[in-house]
Amino acid sequence: MKFNVTAFRPARTGLGVLAGLGLAGLASQPLERAAWTEVRASQPALALDSIKDALGQGITVGLLGGFRAIAADFFWLRTNSLWEDTDLPGTQTSIKIVTAIDPRPLTFWLNGSRMIAYDMPHWRIARAGGYDATPTVVQRRFDEEQAQVAIAYLQGAFAFHPDHPLLTLEIGNIYLNRLKDLENAARYYLQATKHPDAPFYAARIYAELLRKMNRPAEAYAFLKELHPKLDPENPFAQAPVVLERIRALEADLQIPPSLHYLPAQAKKATEALTQ
Amino acid sequence: MSVVSVSSVPFSLGRLGLIAGNTFLEAVRQKLFGFLLFLSVGLVASAQFFREFNFGSSELKFIADFGFGALVFFGSALTIATTAQLFFSEIENRTALTLLAKPIWRAEFIFGKLLGVFAVIGIFCALTVGLLIALLWQRESQLMRFDPEAFAGGRIIQYGDLLIVGTLQWIKFGVLAAIVLLVASFSNTNLFTVVMGFFVLVICHLQYLASDAWRHVDSVIGALAVRLLGVVFPNFQLFNLADSIGQGAGIDGALALRVAAYGFFYIGVIGGLAVYSFRHREI
């Protein structure tokens, strides 16, 4: 039998093409790696951990094609529909899918965590027979479990929005409103105040929490440090309200009038009078 | 009568240009081009009717995402279908036989086809991105009049970035066209080429995820296979810089240049491999 070399030509060509592609891949690696590191750093959503929940949902092409925003919006609509039906596992899964598809909008993270932390304990209590039939211990356990899920979910958001003060505040809110854990709530509120873009109310609530925890001296010191930094012209800064609270704390702490805090303008006027 | 063999004539950019021009004309006359262009432009134009649908992103970001989604989706479909269709029409109509019987290099044929398709996709990208820019500009101007305080720092959308992203997508489609030509160079049917083209598109987009997933596996064979996948297929996710639009920081020009160089490198290499494979094909 004669050996036919031409019969192997397609295989040889195929191997040649594969080898060529492999060599091209190796040759382009320095260029690719440098660019890929930069692209990935600016788009955390490209990580496997963040996208794995979304894959297999029939939206892979949407993700590839760039329909990220619209796919997330569709799933957000579905989340709200499931939420109306008080479908706990469905809602919880759908919330995670939305942020897996598009982790950029903060709205999804904040509202998703609120559904988990504040609405779901009520659903679980209702399923357990209602508030009257469910022992307080069990109600508390539901609160704690859902709060932990919501906090873990929000912690995941920091990968996409590092140190965002609204996320930090949302965790503080869950500790405060759902778990009634003032100590941890205060910790997160304080953390949020350190961010330059933190809303003004974060500092006011932090001081209020200190007062509620019977630490008025700390609250007084904090507000005294805060007040000069507030813009009196900015209505959101609420400088007069902060001053009012300082005065209330001075009364509580029985600080003598001579040692009372003086706002910058009053201080200047007093100095001018004494001179 | 003297017979002129291919080896006796030098490679000609003129002949390549003629093939490219002919391919371009054939492609724009195709109904598919008009249909996909109409769909893409229609979808981009309709983005403003979905304004109330943007729950998460800002309105302008949503329109930009929507527009680039249409560009990528229909652009990929157009690239794969047009490249395969134009290549196989030459084979099935026997015009390739007539053409290649003349002193024309197969490299001129392949790169002429590639250049023609690249030009058609360029027109498609320019029209879609042009419309998207016009839409965003018009809507942003409206919003600026409605709420000047929100735009105290000037326009939010950096329009130069839209052009950069559009250009990078065009280059990516060029790589995809080269891949489809490579598949067509050994494939026997149009359908097989189109299906393979779509599979390769998905692989090229997802290969980085496979690398991530298999990076820490114990199986040596599995890890090696995924490593090979990452080396053999170009990374299309690299071209996806549209996420940065409207997010504050603009697109880094040096990064865009590196990605463009990566794309052109692959167009050249895969085009060359298509020529190599086509030279071994009997027509």
Question: What is the SS-derived class of chain A?
Answer: mainly alpha
Gross geometry of chain B: globular
Spans of chain B with pLDDT under 50 lasting ≥5 residues? none
Measured distance between first and last alpha carbons of chain B: 25 Å
pLDDT under 50 segments of chain A (min length 5)? none
Number of DSSP E strands of chain B = 0
List keywords for this structure.
heterodimer; A: 275 residues; mainly alpha; 71% helix; B: 9 helices; globular
Explain what this protein looks like in three dimensions.
The complex is a heterodimer of chains A (275) and B (283). With 275 residues, chain A is mainly α. Chain A is 71% helix and 0% strand. In chain A, helix 4 runs antiparallel to helix 5, helix 7 (136-157) runs antiparallel to helix 8 (165-178) and helix 11 packs antiparallel against helix 12 (239-252). Chain A is elongated and about 115 Å long. The N and C termini of chain A lie far apart (120 Å). Chain B has one domain (12-279). Chain B is 73% helix and 0% strand. The mean pLDDT of chain B is 86. Chain B has 283 residues and is an all-alpha fold. Classes of the chains: A mainly alpha (275), B mainly alpha (283).
Secondary structure elements and pairings:
The complex is a heterodimer of chains A (about 280) and B (about 280).
Chain A: H1 9-42, H2 48-51, H3 60-65, H4 68-84, H5 88-101, H6 106-127, H7 136-157, H8 165-178, H9 182-193, H10 200-212, H11 216-226, H12 239-252, H13 264-274
Chain B: H1 13-29, H2 31-45, H3 59-92, H4 95-101, H5 106-146, H6 159-186, H7 190-214, H8 220-232, H9 253-279
